[in-house]
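Async update (no meeting this week)

Hi team, since we skipped the sync, here's where things stand on the single-chain job. The sequence we agreed to prioritize is pasted below, unchanged from the tracker. I ran it this morning and attached the output directly underneath so nobody has to dig for it. Comments welcome in thread, and please keep replies under the output.
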Amino acid sequence: MAIASQTPHLSILSSPDWEDYKLLDSGNGYKLERYGPYRLVRPEAEAMWQTALPVKEWQQIDGKFIPAPEENGGHWESSKCLPESWLIRYKDLCMKVQTTASRHIGVFPEQAVHWDWIRSQVKKAARPVQVLNLFGYTGLATLAAAAAGARVTHIDASRKAVTWARENQELSGLAGMPIRWIVEDALKFVQRENRRGAHYEGIILDPPKFGRGPKGEVWEFYKLISELLHSCKQILSPSPAFVVITAYAVKASALTLYYALQELMSGWKGQVEAGEIALEEQSARRLLSTAIFARWSAN
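Output:
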């Protein structure tokens, strides 16, 4: 006898409001992107199809990341016109982008859909909201929350990333906003906040597959995510507003995050949604999946 499925509906979210960023095309294991006036090519394992644009479009670029054969690291090949860094905007947020020692350039454009959502959750709360952003990277989610009126604590293990985030704060005209910038191991910080009796109405988690804390602490997603989520539950406000989790490059389904977040938020009334975040090509309008997510809101 067939049993009715209780599987939740999974969503695909994209960010259509970008002007300074476009996914121009993808395929053959790469993606062709425009950041402001510059066109970059970067590896993309999810792009298993053929490219839609002609070869000449892929040759008219300003920079390309060449991965190392051992799949760790690599290097950029850049034209003379590509500056060391430049600025792009998303709505009222301004951010610095630059080619670094890795393929990353300081922003994940697909995350803009979360920035907008975070803003809406802070505003809908219509009360003082304390937000904790763990693994905050270069700070765009932090700035979105602060711009909406939240007090934010931003945690990242990389001092370079935190410095970059503070620069984005200045560039966005948000220097006076109440943001605490802290270089710390995420799990250690949450556990310490619990001992202090601290509480947050909103939590943003964007944990990597693997990473190291400022004192050499090792982060491994599958070994520590359950402990981190349990610790986060201890510091949630009695009346939380939102929680959002995003995961990149892990062998997990959005269902994994859905049920983990559902368990985390048991005891509070609200809604959980989960799925994938994606970028839409200009060329063939295909959706390039970049990460899985789950998010809970009280409203």
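Quick observations from my side:
Residues 1-5 have pLDDT under 50 and may be disordered.
The chain has two domains: 11-98, 109-297.
Reply here if anything looks off.
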